[in-house]
Amino acid sequence: MRQGEIFGHPKGLYVLFFTEMWERFSYYGMRALLVLYMTQHLLLKAEKGDPVVGYGGIKAFVQGVAGLLGTHSELSIQAMSSQIYGLYTALVYLTPFMGGILADRVFGQRKSVYIGGILMAIGHFLMAVESLFFPALLFLILGNGCFKPNISTQVGGLYPKGDHRRDGAFTIFYMGINLGAMFSPLVCGTLGQKVGWHWGFGAAGVGMLLGLMIYHFGRHTLPSDEQTEHEAGIAHAEGGSTKLSAQEWKSIAALVFLCIVNIVFWAVYEQQGNTMQLWAEERTIWTYLGWTIPSTWFQLFNPLFIMIFAPMLTRLWNWQSDRKREPSTVTKMGVGCILLGAAFVIMICAARVVGPTDKGSALWLIGTALVLTMGELYLSPVGLSLVTKLAPVRMVSMLMGMWFLSSFFGNYLSGVLGGFYNVISKDAFFGLMTVLAISAGLIFFGANRPLRQVIGDKV
C-alpha cells in the first residue's frame, strides 16, 4: 500500500465518498417525497387558495409549456406535479454548468463545494415551511450547481494523468452516491409518510450538514485548487498556447454529441422518481404481515442493486480488459440504454396484468429496478470517468457541468413525458419509454466506430 492510501486508493477518495453519500442522502430523500407531497398535500392546498410563494407564476409557465406541446390547457394535479418535478430535477442539472465555470474562473473547487452545501442545507430546512416551497427549491437548485460538478471533478484530481485506477475510483465514488440514496427512502420517506412531510425534509437537511462536516475535516486529503491550476499550466505549456488544440476541440465535440444522446436516457430513467413512484403508491401492494410499508421504500431498490452489482461489473470489465475484450465506453453506454428499455418491458407486462382499479405485486417494480440498475451502471459512472479523460484540464469543471447539462434536458423531458401518464393507457406509456431508450442505445452503437476513429481509444 502506498503512503496515504487505503485499499489502493488515496484517502481523499473516501472523504469524497462519504461527503457525496450524505449529499445524495439529502437529495434522494427529498426526491422520494416530492411528487407525493405535491399530489397529496401541497398543490391541493394551493388550489384552494392557501399561500404558496411563486405558485401562480410556476403554474402559468407549466401550463403555457403544456399548451405549446399540444397537451391539455388545464393540467390535473398529477400532471402539474409531474411537470414541476421534471422542472426541478432538470434545473438541478442545469446549474452545474454555471457552477463549473465559476469554480474554474472565480471560486475554485473547494470554496464552491462549501457554498453549494450551505445553500442546499438552507433549502432543505426551508421545505419545512409550506409557503416557501418554491424558494426552497431555488436554494437547492443553486446549491447543487456549485456542489455537484466540483465534488466529482476532485475525484479525478486525486489521480495523475494516465492512472489506470481512475475508472475504478469513479465506480467506488458512485457506490457512495447510491449508499446515500439507499438509506434516504428508509429515513426521509418513512418520516415523511408516517410522521409528517416536514420531518422527512428536515432529515434531508441534517444529512447535508453531515456531508459538509466530513468534507471540512477531511479537506487536507483532497487536491488543492492550486494543484489543479498547476496541472492546467502544464497543459498550457505542453500545448505551447492557451488556445484549444484541434484534438481538444474534437474531444469537446465528442462530449457534446454523447451529452445529446444521453438526454434520452435520463428522460426515461427519471420516471422511477415520477410515474413509477405513482405506480408504487397507487397500484402496488405494500402490506405484509399486517404492516404497511411506505411506498417510497420502492426507491431503495435501485441504489441497493447498485451496491450489490457495481463491484461485480467492475470485476467483469477487468476480466474482459485482461483478455482485450472490454467494450468501449460508447458501447457500454449503448448497452445501458438497451437495458433501460428492457426494464420498461416489465412495466408493460405489469400494466397488462394489474387491472386499472387493482393493486399488484411489488415484484413488478423490483424486477424493473434490477434491470434499470444494470443499465445505469453501464452508462452513468463510465460517463463521469470519460469527462475527466477527454476534457482539457483547464476546462474540466465546466465540461463536467456540461455532462450534467444533458441531465437537465433529460429530467425536464421526463416531467413532460410524465404528463402523459394519466392521458394514455399505462402499457402504451411504458411502451413509449421502451422505444425511446432502445432508440438511444442504437444511436450509441452506430456512433461507436466513428468516434473511436476521431478521438481514439479513450471512447
Helicity range of the residues? over 70%
The CATH homologous superfamily is named MFS general substrate transporter like domains
Widest sheet: strand ordering: 1-2
Radius of gyration: 22 Å
CATH architecture: Up-down Bundle
Unreliable parts = 232-240
Structure report:
The chain has one domain (5-455): Up-down Bundle (Growth Hormone, Chain: A). Helix content is 76%, strand content 2%. It has helices at residues 11-47, 55-68, 77-107, 109-126, 133-157, 166-195, 197-217, 225-239, 246-269, 275-282, 301-322, 329-353, 363-390, 396-418, 426-455, and strands spanning 5-6, 9-10, 287-288, 291-292. The strands form 2 sheets. A two-stranded antiparallel sheet has the order 1-2. The chain has a two-stranded antiparallel ribbon with strand order 3-4. Strand 3 and strand 4 (291-292) form a beta hairpin. Residues 232-240 have low confidence and may be disordered.
